[in-house]
Amino acid sequence: MRVLVADDERLLADMIAEGLRRVSMAVDVCYDGDGALERIAVNRYDVAVLDRDMPGRTGDEVCRSLAGSDAGTRVLMLTAAAGIRDRVEGLGLGADDYLTKPFAFAELVARVQALGRRSAPAVPPVLEQYDMALDVARHTVTRDGRPVNLSPKEFAVLHVLMRANGRVVSAEELLEQAWDEFADPFTNAVRVTVMTLRKKLGQPAIIHTVPRAGYRIGGPE
């Protein structure tokens, strides 16, 4: 899942991003509405976490822009204003959810995960293919009932592949969805991550390389 975090409180924005990365989300961060709109113009995000009260271009403007587009990005609005009227106004702008500051970080993660499941096309909270199950909320993977211990990046790559439901996923698409905006397009990070993921998932192999195309989840070959 790829997430945009936009908040002019830099420390808070960085803390949110770091916490979301720990649960295998690819996160881009900016500190104003202009930066958010610039990133939205060139990247596709499953979820945007927006501070409503940013100076300059506000979170309201960014939310309105997303709501009027066909990006399919879900919006979680953050604000210090806790009144019902403020929440209603935010939802009226096109926000999908609303969270007041201060908040419990576990709740923010749960809300982002729930919004990600509602992004188009919608995906269930637990993905199951062949003898493998990936639980997004619990951040667990099992194969044939046995737990598989994955790093956050390995989990993210497996999540993208399982969401594709057998479709071939290119290395470029994996970089876009499982890494942030600073990923080097010429890096071998995807190949290395897939290689270690295969080893951890064990035999028979379930991640297959399609020459000159990418990777896919499939039954034993």
TrEMBL record:
Keyword DNA-binding found: yes
Q: Which residues bind DNA?
A: 124-219
Listed InterPro entries: CheY-like_superfamily (IPR011006), OmpR/PhoB-type_DNA-bd (IPR001867), Sig_transdc_resp-reg_receiver (IPR001789), WalR-like (IPR039420), WH-like_DNA-bd_sf (IPR036388)
Domain Response regulatory residue range list: 2-116
Q: Which branch of life, at top level?
A: Bacteria
- One GO term describing the cellular component: protein-DNA complex
Keywords assigned by UniProt, alphabetized: DNA-binding, Phosphoprotein
Instruction: Tell me where in this chain the OmpR/PhoB-type domain is found.
Output: 124-219
Q: Which GO terms describe its molecular function?
A: phosphorelay response regulator activity; transcription cis-regulatory region binding
The alphabetized list of GO BP terms reads: regulation of DNA-templated transcription
4-aspartylphosphate is found on D51
This protein is called DNA-binding response regulator, OmpR family, contains REC and winged-helix (WHTH) domain
- Which species is this UniProt entry from? Micromonospora avicenniae
